[in-house]
Design a protein that fits this description.
The structure is a single chain. By secondary structure, the chain is an alpha+beta fold. It has one domain. The protein contains four helices and six strands. The strands form two sheets. Strands 1, 3, 4 and 6 form a four-stranded antiparallel sheet that branches. It has a two-stranded antiparallel ribbon with strand order 2-5. Helix 1 packs antiparallel against helix 3. The relative contact order is 0.17.
Length: about 180
C-alpha cells in the first residue's frame, strides 16, 4: 500500500473507494483503514550503569487506504456508504482513545540494557508488541461491528451503531456497550 493513497480521518464519499474489487470476495464493499503509530524516544545512561530507552512522544493517526478500499457497484447507496464510514469511524475512535492514554502508554514502554543498543532493541520489541495489540484491538472491534450489523443487513442494529459511533466521535470516546 502506498502512503500516497492514505487519507486522514474524514467523511468518505464514493470517490474515496479507488481499489479494484476482489472477484473472490463476496462482499459488496471493503474499507481498508488503520492507525499509523509514530514515536520518538531518548536513551540515557542511568546511575546504575545501565541504559534506559523511554518514549518522549507517541502519536496515533487513523487513515483510510483509498487504493485498497472498493465496492462492486459504482452506484453505491447511502446505507452501504454509511456502513463503510462506520469502519473508518471505529479506527478513528480507537486512535483518539490511544492518544488520550498516551502518557500511560509511554510510561509502560521502556527499554533497558547493558548497552545503548540493548536498551533500544528492548524498547523496539515492546513497541512492536504494542503496535500488534493496536492492530488486534482494531480487528476485534471491526468484527463486532460487522457481526452485530450483519454487514449492514440488519438495519436496526446498523442505526444503533451509527448513533453510538456519532456520539463517540462527538465525545471523543469509544461507544458504550459492545465497544
Amino acid at each position: 500500500m502506498s502512503d500516497d493513497n492514505r487519507i486522514p480521518y474524514q467523511q468518505l464519499t464514493k470517490d474515496n473507494f479507488k481499489g479494484t474489487p476482489d472477484p473472490t470476495d463476496p462482499r459488496l464493499a471493503t474499507t481498508r483503514s488503520g492507525i499509523t503509530v509514530s514515536w520518538s524516544f531518548r536513551t540515557t545512561l542511568r546511575g546504575d550503569g545501565r541504559y534506559e530507552s523511554k518514549l518522549i512522544d507517541i502519536r496515533y493517526e487513523s487513515y483510510f487506504a483509498e487504493d485498497e478500499s472498493w465496492w462492486r457497484d459504482k452506484t453505491i447507496n447511502g446505507d452501504l456508504l454509511r456502513h463503510e464510514q462506520g469502519h473508518f469511524d471505529i479506527v478513528e475512535i480507537l486512535a483518539r482513545e490511544l492518544d488520550a492514554n498516551k502518557r500511560k502508554i509511554m510510561d509502560q514502554l521502556k527499554g533497558e540494557g547493558g548497552t545503548r543498543e540493548e536498551a533500544e532493541a528492548d524498547l523496539e520489541q515492546q513497541f512492536a508488541r504494542h503496535a500488534q495489540d493496536v492492530v488486534n484491538e482494531q480487528h476485534k472491534r471491526q468484527k463486532i461491528y460487522d457481526n452485530e450489523t450483519d454487514y449492514n443487513k440488519n438495519s436496526v442494529k446498523q442505526r444503533e451503531w451509527n448513533r453510538r459511533l456519532n456520539e463517540a466521535l462527538k465525545a471523543g470516546h469509544k461507544p458504550k456497550e459492545s465497544l
